[in-house]
Amino acid sequence: MLERNTNFFPQQLQKLISDSFLYVNEDAYGNDRLFFENAGGSLRLKSAVDAQTQLSSLPDCPERTHDIAMDIRKVIEKGTEDIRLILNAKDGSIATSLTASKLMFEIITTIAMDKSSGNIVTTDIEHPSSYDACQFSAEQYKHELRVAKADPKSGSIPLENILKLIDEETVLVSVILTSNITGAMHDIKGYADAIRLKNPDTIIVVDAVQGAPHGPIDVDEWEIDALNIAPYKMFGNRGVGYAYLSNRIASLPHHRLLATDEDNWNIGSPTPAQFASFSKVIDYICEIGSYFNSSDDRRTLITEGMNRIHLQEQAILNRLINGSNERPGIKDISNVTVHFEEANGIRQDLILALTFDNISCEEAVQLYGEQNILVYARESSSHYSKRILDAVNLDAIVRVSPIHCHTSTDVDKFLEITQKISEIIR
Ligand SMILES: Cc1ncc(COP(=O)(O)O)c(C=O)c1O
């Protein structure tokens, strides 16, 4: 198995990164806080928030022809181009909606509606936005719903479990890039190649909401048909989701203002502030890229930046698990179990799924909170978690989700508190 990167960002770059985010070391009330809950919505870039505010202050309608209106149009065009660049979407359409979930429902329903009585393949660790969309569409349009089983050890879906459900009647396959609960990452290119080999007509839909902030995305190379992301999970703001749709699905009959192009998925007035804000996210990723790469090609810098983010996060993960000369890592702290990570190796995202022998997950979250560390318990009492936790034979986990802007000092603080929590006797 490949070794994880252990080198953190150079100090100069680390400082630039830390200074780019809001509330890295304290919360909105000025209290010290380590925000290790980025899978629930990530730390925000100052530039993304500022751009949102600035564009939101303009009353001008972009559909007019005066100077400000024309400039706002450019912001929307640049934002759309930036969405294409981060996804490497060279063809097809870009869709926007209030949430990534809404887009997933639109996409899956549209595909399911186009074919009569076949089957839809999904997995038992999908987020409800895609799983429920598959179930809903299967019921509405008389398809059979087939659910690929997870490997409880890795919290991922083995490719063969998907392939054995695919036949000539398979309308679509929906598979998550990275699980927001287990942190398992799927090799979408490898999966898509194998799915196409089994049935080239099957539409491949990918939920990249959790994966997008942690590594490069390439819909062109992966040759998939649809993929969604959410800026609030990748250093930007809430209130919008984006999706790519390939040429073969973009013009399927779908909700559309009928005077617009057949492949247009945007209904009503766009929000320029969202595009301005997302372009700042892309600028930031390019800034990291340009620290290591002198290219002036924006996609090259995005890929470099996302690869560097991924490497930094692998170094954070490594220190969390294995510790350092300063302190032992989680694997050497008794009473704590790290799930999935060992089975996944370098295919584990920067998400730790922990359970404690001495206390419940709920108690652990409370205790971390008292020590100014924000983490979250995913429990089977929640619709968002139950099916996924059942699939990996767990009842609850403490989800720990830092991002690349965190440092070795932050990791050591987390380990120190984890050690203390693990020693509590009830
Ligand atoms: C993997 C994954 N997919 C989809 C979503 C849906 O995002 P939203 O609720 O913003 O639509 C989430 C949100 O947590 C997610 O983690």
UniProtKB/TrEMBL annotation:
GO terms for molecular function: lyase activity. Keywords: Lyase, Pyridoxal phosphate. It holds the Pfam family Aminotran_5. Residues 35-309 form the Aminotransferase class V domain. Its cofactor is pyridoxal 5'-phosphate. Gene3D superfamilies: Aspartate Aminotransferase, domain 1, Type I PLP-dependent aspartate aminotransferase-like (Major domain). This is Selenocysteine lyase/cysteine desulfurase. The lineage of its organism: Bacteria, Bacillati, Bacillota, Bacilli, Bacillales.
